[in-house]
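User: What would this chain look like folded?
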Amino acid sequence: MPDAIFSHPRLARVYDALEGGRSDLDTYLRLAADAGVKAVLDVGCGTGTLACLLAAGGVEVVGVDPASASVRVARTKPGAEKVTWMVGTAPDAAADPANYQRFGLATMTANVAQVFLSDAEWICTLRAVHSCLRPGGMLAFETRNPADRAWERWTKERSHQVVDTGAEGLVEDWVEVTKVDGELVSFESPTVFHSDGERVDSTSTLRFRSQDALRSSLAEAGFRAVEIRDLPYAPTRGWLVLASA
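Assistant: Here's the prediction, encoded as structure tokens.
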């Protein structure tokens, strides 16, 4: 089940405003352009920013996300009619025969690759993506470097913000870690709407895998070659993982 921060209708409507600029997506736009791909599978597409940008450039895009509220927001964006939207997961996308070996590129941006907590769920997702990629196609995703210990910066003091979201007015949010258990980090993300005082709480958990674990899981899912680079917009803090089908 998606976290409330993505699945709650009111939160989904202010997600883009709270996230601010999405220069992080430039990496994926460049990958698609450099590879000259004609079709992209955007796994965990959220509110659809990347999918719409790719489609505006003439790329055929399927955006899939389990949070129906986020997909509803995505469908309202300029150019959204050029994207095929699915409420579901990568295995749901793979279950459609039309998607078999259809895509030159599959993406998982932001935290998407880290929300799969169990090995079984992660491998199932990777295998589904692999089946959707053309031979030689590429999966690109990002994940945080555990050595950076990003969760130590996830405090109310360091993350608190109040943003004018337009129609919803001023909205306040922050992040606070609640538990660290090995590779698993859990945190709360309260959101407060100043217009009426409504507070929506969301709890999330991310898994911080090592490079060895990432390579092993990708090989198990059938990917042939794996390259792990520094994440362009956050060098040393995160990795950009490129895996060839």
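The chain has a mean pLDDT of 96. If you want, I can go into more detail on any region.
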